Amino acid sequence: MWPFMREFSAVRSGYFWIYLIPALLFFLFNGGIFLFGQAHPKDFVSPAKTQHIWGFKNCLAAVAGFAVLWAFQYLPFLVSTAPGFELIGISLFSGMLPLLLFVYIPEFIVLIFILTWFYRKTGKIYRGSFMITSLAIWFLTAGTALNKIISQYR
Question: Does the global pTM surpass 0.70?
Answer without folding.
Answer: yes
